[in-house]
Amino acid sequence: MQFALPPRRNLNAPPYIRSSRLSLQRRKQLKAVAILGFALLTVFFLLSQFFYTSTGTAAVSAGTPSLVIVTVLDRVRWSDTYIQKIIKNREDYAKRHGYTNFFANLSDYESSLDNAPKSWGVVPAVRHAMASHPHATHFFYLDVHALFMNPSKSLDSHLLGKSRLDSLMLKDVPVVPPDSIIKTFSHLKPQDVDLIMTTDSEDLSSGSFIIKQGDYAQFLLDIWFDPLYRKYNFAKAEAHALDHIVQWHPTILARLALVPQRIINAYSKDSSSAGVDGNYKDGDLVIRFFGCDTDTKRSCEKEMDPYYRLWSKNSKTE
What we know:
Nucleotide-diphossugar_trans; 12% strand; Glyco_trans_34; globular; Galactosyl transferase GMA12/MNN10 family-domain-containing protein
């Protein structure tokens, strides 16, 4: 019985000639792809360094404001004359220092307040401002019942500069006066600050504060506006909610700086609850008519009028 034999191999022929040629060609292709990929990654890296700052935030074009002043306007309750005075005062200040204003309408947020006091509008207004100005660094919320009285002082030199802020920060003091056992951090550095506030004689002031754009701000605003707090019926609504949050959330407290009241929150002489040396004096940046909208014996418009006339006179001479 015979068996078919396989074809005889030429032992002198190089094995896999075709496969070898294909492998060489593929290696060349892969090498070219690798070089191209590396080149693209290099270009992307260089562009990312050009368009992004060292902090990881997108670089912005010249002229983009670094600070936004946030004001909530209740156009139903207050006269147009009163509101236009507030707008004129803040637009003048912003224009002098390269800032911009965000005038929010309270009516835009009332549906989200779930019947909570209207003063809660501060939280969605600040969030709205941040969404509208994603490249701004800081946001200064200032209650509508307040005026800039010293237009020559920029917030950058008056408060936000590192050396200036370091000199103003109140360390190891009660977060909520007069005797809270929770105190501000004694080792906090200016570069680690994301929230700047003042207190009066009773509470943290939710009517005048500066917050830095970023994850911390989103975290704080999310917690602050939680339905649990809005529906808790705090005696002073969002102010007492903030007192609670800052005292019992170390993550929030860890990046909070308290500064003297008159730096950004000087109270008028008719306002109660001013802290030690918290009443307005000539030369202060801001005067705030705290409580003028809740005290039936007071009138916000009448209280503001003489200060508005003084500001108008002084602003024309500068």
